[in-house]
Specification:
Elements lengths: L2 E7 L5 H11 L4 E5 L4 H5 L11 H22 L2 E5 L7 H13 L3 E4 L9 H6 L2 E3 L2 H11 L6
Parallel strand pairs: 1-2, 1-3, 3-4, 4-5
Helix pairs in contact: 1-6, 3-4
């Protein structure tokens, strides 16, 4: 059985690649999915629906188009990993965590200790909080271990 993991959140570092490569090195049978991680492409997702002069409406259309992908992939995953970075506020990641919680979909948060207080509610619904991609790979290795069955 292939385990499906959705990777949500911060797009400015290589944390996704670290988890994917670490999982490959551990020979884990995982299919990873993610939101669109190219900022410009994500912002332009709704441009096919017509040009907008007002940035609000461009963002609104693109958010709705992007939500089709995000909603579908979260619903299909077995587990989500939700990364909060230091530099930017990832409001979309917080929304993804809330969606996972509403669906009773397990998720792991990934962030530094500096964000413990602002993410206390998000972490409170998470099944685990990790501070490094390596810790996430360790959790995935545990979950998929043949020794557990």
């Amino acid at each position: 059985m292939t385990f499906k993991v959705y990777l949500s959140g911060e797009i400015h570092t290589d944390w996704r690649e670290q988890i994917i490569e670490g999982s490959k090195a551990a020979n884990l049978d995982i299919k990873f999915s993610s939101a669109v991680t190219v900022h410009e492409a994500s912002d332009a997702a709704g441009d096919c629906l017509g040009e907008e002069v007002n940035g609000f409406w461009r963002d609104h259309k693109s958010a709705k188009v992007n939500a089709i992908r995000t909603k579908t992939l979260i619903e299909q995953c077995d587990l989500a990993v939700i990364r909060f970075g230091e530099q930017y506020k990832q409001w979309n990641a917080a929304f993804d965590a809330g969606y996972c919680a509403a669906l009773n979909k397990p998720y792991i948060t990934l962030h530094s200790e500096a964000l413990i207080h602002p993410l206390k509610e998000v972490d409170g619904s998470a099944q685990a909080w990790a501070t490094t991609p390596e810790q996430v790979v360790e959790i995935l290795t545990y979950l998929l271990s043949d020794q557990l069955s």
